[in-house]
């Protein structure tokens, strides 16, 4: 659950933190698309590398490395699972299976890195505001914002629940795969129920503070897309085009 | 017998949640653990049932070193009831909720039946046997959470904030239950902020502040020390305050003693 800490926003004043969220969304979308598009390891590694300057400028190496390290377990799982599936079930040669699984694993790390840098440097309020300015209805923008905001709360709560159930003799790591999945039921049910309870509370609290009273919301603070945002988008777009052209010029897959 | 020796623990490097805590609790004692928010009370009790392992020092409970046993084997002996019942209730019915721990510990089925029935009658939950735990009221859920731990008969019982959100009748019931369990020879630890509850019902108190034990002794002696209570941000028991105001010497938290001393004051209360 510690992995969530690698996605939690912390206030910062670096050039990356103060970028317009829309500029960062452009980077996020372009490079996520590239990561999904390519199979070639070197291109994937280049995509991963593209997030490194951002990490350096934003000075978020510590938090970012938590999310990267936290993803290793999933990466290992993806690699092994793909390897087994490709080799035994789809009849690939061992070499092809290894290479392809490796791509999958690197792609996953790329996505974690891109999303982690985005969420670490973008405040939830700014994100909501940028969604509103992108003409997404406020209700949806707020729902998204709140979903993000409650991720750490949920992970903390899951920890409490696990402690309580372990105290009643639940052994999470006991038994075969099916038994282990079943072991999660006593954790998941309280987690879901308390999420519903909390949702109700939050709804009541919002209505008590007159949420939705005025049809047209105004905001005291507007996001401005200025020169440095344009430069960032330009850099992202140029590197995107450069990476994409590899496909057409050198038929890299 | 619970024995903690020089136990330190930290969640984040650089800040000790427990700082060289040494504490011995004998079999059959009834002890309150009090202290300000973040003093380390919950961290301390999590060491006693093995959920947390000390970074330094050692914890021995009922002859078992917590480092060398699993939570499940320690939990068999140490029942820990958490503050929020919603963090543990999950089963379809109250009856199944009660049998969860018993099944985990491998108790035979006829014994499970006997124990769950005992727990339901003890906690006035029998009429809800087939009902979902989520349909119960807040107070009933709290009782169910307690029952679900008590029914497997741990030798040591630890309650984290058992009185929050309970009315006076439930508090008195809780106190008499704790005393009854204690008379049956169980060791009972109560983590609480409710100083009146402690001064009325619990003979020994351990005061924690900033990860350290700053006082440990009979409630009548500890709860009249102004500096200790202030340091741990605790509300003094009303009788202690009366004692201080009237300059009774020695101050006391026992109603009879305070009355007796007041009547001995010059021009004191008429009998």
Give an overview of the whole structure.
The complex is a heterodimer of chains A (253) and B (271). Chain A has 253 residues and is mainly alpha-helical. Chain A has 2 domains: 149 residues, no CATH class; 77 residues, no CATH class. Chain A is 74% helix and 0% strand. Chain A contains 9 helices and no strands. The two termini of chain A are 35 Å apart. Chain B is α/β, with parallel strands linked by helices and 271 residues long. Chain B has 2 domains: 144 residues, Rossmann fold, CATH 3.40.50.300; 57 residues, no CATH class. Chain B has 11 helices and 10 strands. Chain B has a 6-stranded mixed sheet with strand order 6-7-8-3-9-10, with helices on both faces. Chain B has a 4-stranded antiparallel sheet with strand order 2-1-4-5, covered by helices on one side. The longest helix of chain B has 16 residues. The model of chain B has no long low-confidence stretch (mean pLDDT 90). At the A-B interface, helix 6 and helix 8 of A face helix 2 and helix 3 of B.
Quick overview:
The complex is a heterodimer of chains A (253) and B (271). By secondary structure, chain A is mostly helical.
Task: List the SSEs and their pairings.
The complex is a heterodimer of chains A (253) and B (271).
Chain A: H1 21-37, H2 41-58, H3 61-89, H4 94-121, H5 124-133, H6 138-167, H7 177-183, H8 185-208, H9 227-250
Chain B: E1 2-9, E2 18-25, E3 30-35, H1 41-48, E4 56-61, E5 64-65, H2 71-75, E6 78-81, H3 94-104, H4 109-122, H5 138-150, E7 156-160, H6 168-183, E8 187-191, H7 195-201, E9 204-209, E10 212-218, H8 219-222, H9 226-231, H10 238-246, H11 255-264
Parallel strand pairs in B: 3-8, 3-9, 6-7, 7-8
Antiparallel strand pairs in B: 1-2, 1-4, 4-5, 9-10
Helix pairs in contact in B: 3-4, 3-5, 4-5
Bin the helical content of chain B.
25-40%
Give unreliable regions of chain A as ranges: none
Oligomeric grouping of the chains: heterodimer
- What's the CATH first level of the largest domain in chain B? Alpha Beta
Kindly report how far apart the N and C termini of chain B lie: 45 Å
Give the overall average pLDDT of chain B.
Answer: 90
What shape does the CA trace of chain A take?
flat
Query: Strand count, sense and closure of the main sheet of chain B?
Result: 6 strands, mixed
- CATH superfamily caption of the largest domain in chain B: P-loop containing nucleotide triphosphate hydrolases
Helix/strand structural class of chain A: mainly alpha
Number of helices of chain B: 11
């Amino acid at each position: 659950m510690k992995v969530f800490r690698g996605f939690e926003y912390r206030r910062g004043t670096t050039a990356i933190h103060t970028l317009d969220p829309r500029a960062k969304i452009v980077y996020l979308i372009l490079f996520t698309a590239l990561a999904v598009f390519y199979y070639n390891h070197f291109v994937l590694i280049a995509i991963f590398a593209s997030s490194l300057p951002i990490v350096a400028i934003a000075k978020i190496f510590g938090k970012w490395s938590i999310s990267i390290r936290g993803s290793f377990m999933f990466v290992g799982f993806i690699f092994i699972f793909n390897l087994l599936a490709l080799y035994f079930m789809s009849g690939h040669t061992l070499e092809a299976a290894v290479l392809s699984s490796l791509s999958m694993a690197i792609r996953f790390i790329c996505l974690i890195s891109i999303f982690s840098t985005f969420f670490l440097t973008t405040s939830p309020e700014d994100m909501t505001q940028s969604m509103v300015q992108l003409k997404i209805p406020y209700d949806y923008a707020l729902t998204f914002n709140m979903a993000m905001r409650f991720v750490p709360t949920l992970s903390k709560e899951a920890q409490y629940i696990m402690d309580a159930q372990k105290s009643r003799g639940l052994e999470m790591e006991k038994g075969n795969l099916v038994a282990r999945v079943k072991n999660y039921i006593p954790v998941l049910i309280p987690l879901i129920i308390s999420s519903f309870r909390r949702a109700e509370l939050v709804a009541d609290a919002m209505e008590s503070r007159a949420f939705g009273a005025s049809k047209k919301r105004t905001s005291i603070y507007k996001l401005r897309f200025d020169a440095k945002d344009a430069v960032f988008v330009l850099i992202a777009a140029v590197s995107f085009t450069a990476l994409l052209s590899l496909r057409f010029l050198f038929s890299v897959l | 017998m619970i024995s903690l020796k020089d136990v330190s623990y930290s969640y984040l490097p650089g800040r000790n949640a427990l700082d060289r805590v040494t504490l011995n609790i004998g079999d059959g004692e009834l002890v309150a653990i009090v202290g300000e928010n973040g003093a380390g009370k919950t961290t301390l009790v999590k060491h006693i049932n093995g959920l947390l392992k000390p970074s330094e020092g050692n914890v021995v409970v009922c002859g078992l070193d917590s480092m060398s046993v699993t939570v499940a084997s320690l939990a068999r002996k140490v029942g820990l009831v958490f503050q929020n019942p919603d963090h543990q209730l999950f089963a379809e019915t109250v009856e199944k909720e009660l049998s969860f721990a018993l099944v985990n510990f491998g108790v035979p089925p006829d014994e499970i039946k006997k124990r769950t029935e005992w727990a339901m009658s003890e906690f006035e939950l029998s009429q809800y046997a087939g009902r979902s735990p989520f349909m119960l009221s807040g107070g009933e859920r709290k009782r169910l959470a307690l029952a679900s731990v008590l029914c497997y008969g741990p030798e040591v019982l630890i309650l984290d904030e058992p009185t929050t959100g309970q009315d006076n009748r439930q508090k008195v019931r809780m106190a008499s239950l704790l005393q009854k369990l204690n008379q049956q020879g169980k060791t009972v630890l109560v983590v609480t902020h409710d100083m009146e509850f402690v001064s009325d019902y619990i003979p020994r108190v351990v005061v924690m502040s900033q990860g350290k034990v700053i006082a440990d002794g009979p409630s009548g002696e500890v709860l009249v020390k102004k500096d200790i209570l202030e340091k741990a941000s605790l509300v003094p028991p009303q009788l202690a305050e009366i004692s201080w105001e009237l300059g009774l010497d020695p101050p006391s938290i026992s109603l009879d003693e305070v009355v007796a001393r007041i009547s001995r004051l010059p021009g004191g209360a008429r009998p």
